[in-house]
Amino acid sequence: MVYALGVLSHYAAHVPSDYHIEIKSLVSRYKTVPLNAGDLSIDYGLEIFMFRNGLAASMFLPDHIPFWPFTNQKLSIKASFTDTRFSGDDLFANAYEEVALDIGTASQKGSAIWESLRVGFHYTFSDTLNGFSLNLGYTF
After folding, report:
1. What pLDDT digit, counting tens, does each position of 78-101 carry?
2. Does the residue 31 lie in any domain?
């Protein structure tokens, strides 16, 4: 079993109306506790702190894109970079970075913006690991 506690800060700014910048920071603590069930006993004895800092920038694309099926929603592109560090017990990767790029619909009403359908890629790298994923997400 894992217990976690964290604090997240999030700052967002609309530079001109079609550009959006976000800065996020997270500090969290994770601790495992023993799990016993009948003859099964698991105790990882793991305790770590995680520090994440990220920067994202997005912008709306032109209104009229040929053959775009979601004509009532704006299209946006978003790029991000995140740095993650761990302290405490030794892990396979004590630090890693992530870069991501996605494109999708974004609905806007006044100053509120929410994303509906997005597709993109995500690349994770460090001294000990490299990974790549394709993403498809829908917010409802």
Report:
1. 999 999 999 999 888 999 999 999
2. no
